[in-house]
Amino acid sequence: MWMYVGVAFGLAAPTLLGFFSWFMERKQDIVLSPRQWKANPDWPKSKPRYLIGMELVDFVPRMQQYTKTAEIMITLSSASIIFIPSHLSRQPMLAFSFILLGFAVLWGVSFIAWMSYCYEESLYDPANFNAITSSVMFGLGFGAFASFAGAYMFLAVVIARAIAGGQPLVQ
Fold it and tell me: pLDDT averaged over the chain?
């Protein structure tokens, strides 16, 4: 049962997050490179304090940060899949965490690949990046994070319950 719940959560996380992102962005002008913010000269008389300018900022520094974050998450998830089973007793509830860790790796790698593909495509034609491609990227990135966080939160609960119940954690 826990395995099926993990698969359902792992598949639902990027799908629902991507759909939410698309719903919010579907009528906006979406570009991959962020726009530069400018101070509002009339502030504090008129709000907001900062206005979005038309000049684009280079996306590469942000892409490097996103990639590094995803790489760390992929590394921790992969290491957890390898090392946790050898140190903890075999509890069926742990299947949920392992499935989610597997999805964190899958969605994290997919996020890096999709982001790289979208960046390369937008270099040739910025119109290639739209609300749908942005939503896919958002769903993959935050789906990986949701799977990773959910796995570790559930793992912490299982371990805490075992310690509180006096059950041995080691085989």
Answer: 83
Say which residue the tokens 């959560």 belong to. Answer: 9
Cα 76 from Cα 105, distance rounded (Å):
9
Strand partners, 165: none
Helices (H) then strands (E): counts for the chain: 4, 2
Contacts of 82 (CB under 8 A, 6+ apart): none
Q: What's the pLDDT band for 171 if we cut at 50, 70, 90?
A: low
Q: pLDDT digit string (tens) for 11-65?
A: 888 888 888 888 887 777 676 667 777 777 777 777 777 767 777 778 888 899 9
| Stated pTM of the model | 0.79
* pLDDT at residue 170 is higher than 60: no
Structural domain total, the chain: 1
Does residue 169 form part of some domain? no
How far is residue 101's CA from residue 148's CA, in Å, rounded to a whole number? 6
Answer whether residue 88 is part of any domain: yes
Provide the residue range defining the domain that includes 84: 2-28+59-164
- Say how far apart CA 94 and CA 37 lie, in whole Å: 46
| Residue 48 resides in a domain | no
Query: Does 51 map to a domain?
Result: no
